[in-house]
Design a protein that fits this description.
Number of helices: 10
Helix content: over 70%
Order of helices and strands: HHHHHHHHHH
Distance between the termini: 47 Å
CATH class of the largest domain: Mainly Alpha
Radius of gyration: 19 Å
Length: 197
């Protein structure tokens, strides 16, 4: 592991343990056993570190069109991977809007990626519909489900925080349950039958 990679790993650990406000570049350098000057040789500031961690997160979660789930069963397996990544980078989801306020470049990157992510969810839902696994009474219901899935992935950690709960690995798994329940009204008889067998 290179020095730059080790700094990112140390920063990720500190951000998850506390938050990005408490874990300054000096704290990261101390955890690494290096001088602040050495750290700043590799990274200009904390915002650059957060930005690179976000890029890592994006690489670990983004799929090409060909890789997208073609069935609800495949979607659930992909969600399990997403939850592992969300837990790994949980600081980002807890502090997302605050991080945007400190770094307009990060916000711009995320918005672009998030629009693409929504498009991928929409694409998968259309595939499930074409396969006869889902059925929607109208376009509005379809868009509602797409947004529900997207919001649960992004903001479930913040939702738990507003209830005085701390995000843990079990809380992350609840996101999958939320997504499954959101799809439940739109499952076809075929899909319900397949799920029971």
């Amino acid at each position: 592991m290179s020095r730059k990679e080790a700094i990112l790993e140390a920063a990720l650990g500190l951000f998850n343990e506390t938050n990005t406000q408490s874990a300054t570049t000096n704290h990261i350098a101390k955890a690494m056993g290096i001088s602040p000057g050495n750290l700043h040789y590799h990274y200009k500031n904390r915002e650059e570190i957060v930005r690179l961690l976000y890029k890592q997160l994006r690489v670990e979660t983004s799929l090409t069109i060909d890789e997208l789930p073609n069935t609800i069963e495949e979607l659930q397996k992909h969600e399990e991977l997403l939850i592992q990544v969300q837990w790994k980078y949980r600081f980002f989801f807890k502090e997302m809007l605050f991080l945007f306020s400190r770094d307009p470049l990060l916000e711009k990157m995320y918005i672009k990626d998030n629009i693409a992510h929504r498009d991928r969810i929409s694409y998968s839902m259309k595939i499930f519909t074409q396969r006869g696994e889902l059925s929607f009474p109208d376009e509005r219901s379809f868009e509602f489900l797409v947004d529900s899935i997207l919001m649960s992935w992004q903001f479930y950690a913040s939702y738990l925080h507003t209830l005085g709960k701390t995000l843990d690995s079990q809380g992350s798994i609840e996101v999958i349950e939320y997504t499954n329940n959101a799809m439940q009204p739109y499952l076809t008889k075929k899909e319900n039958t397949d799920a029971r067998t």
